[in-house]
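Researcher: Go.
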Amino acid sequence: MIRVIRHRLFWPVSCLLTLIVINTVVRPRFIKITLRDGELHGALIDILRQSAPLMLVALGMTVVIATRGIDLSVGAVMAVTGAVTLTMIDGSPDPGSLSTVLVAIAAGLAVALGLGVWNGMLVALLRIQPIIATLVLMLAGRGVALLITDGFITTVNSPPLKFVASGYVLGLPFAFILAAVAVAVVGLFERRTALGVLTEAVGINPEASRLAGVRSRGIVLGAYILSATLAGAAGIVYSSNIMAADANAAGELIELYAILAVVLGGTSLLGGKFSIAGTVVGVLIIQTLNSTILFLGVPSAEAPVFFAIVVIVVVLIQSPSIHKIARKVTRRDRAAGPPAAIEAEKVPV
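Model: Structure:
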């Protein structure tokens, strides 16, 4: 039992289950899943579908943070990718063609990959601080997206594109399947190959890993390329959901939510220690909390305060210092218990 409690995923999973229980008590239909026309529907399914963009961004952020870095440009990359993809679809003679959509998506992801190379070169090769290197693209990226769309919100009518966010495969939302596949692939490489060990080594001590023969620059470069590519995929999912390229709204503040999800999942911001499964749980906590706020009818102006209060509680529950204090109190109670019982036995009747 103690081993289970000390597991890094115990508290994140407990927080997620607590949110689900609270929602179920308030609205019993929360956990109800129905099958209509071979598709699963329900509040839980909606949470899985809506969490896809954040899941993709947080997954890449996890690997970047594991290398002792940070990527503040993921929201801007989402905006640029969405702008490139929808501009190409809008300018094509047949926006509803599957081949047109696939070519546009490939072009958008290629641009996202290029932006990842840019971030990675600044950090790995030029040794610029990650927060400064990615801040450059964070500030300039949305301007680039606005240039691509000529300052307007580009809207399209393309069934193949809409399928990305609204379609179903095997009864599950395609967006969720896309995010799940990304998690499985990254988890496979980071936890079932030597890449994960090398990533942790670079995050714990870059200089020592370099002296040990680890090509830290390549690993750091790869982390930023992965982060930007996944952010590009998230941008396509977001644009598909609203069927428009909005350079100002796409990925707004998502970098902060991604960092929060990573931290809630137990990944250390100091680098080295990271958890892919923890990030998944952290994303689900955030999305479930968003769903709870909307259901409770919290005004949009007050929602951030409500969200912050719950997040503070969750972070405190996971705090090692709080756990240490709780262990001290428990040991003190145990130590005080037996003597009191012995004294009680000595009292004459």
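Model: Residues 340-345 have pLDDT under 50 and may be disordered.
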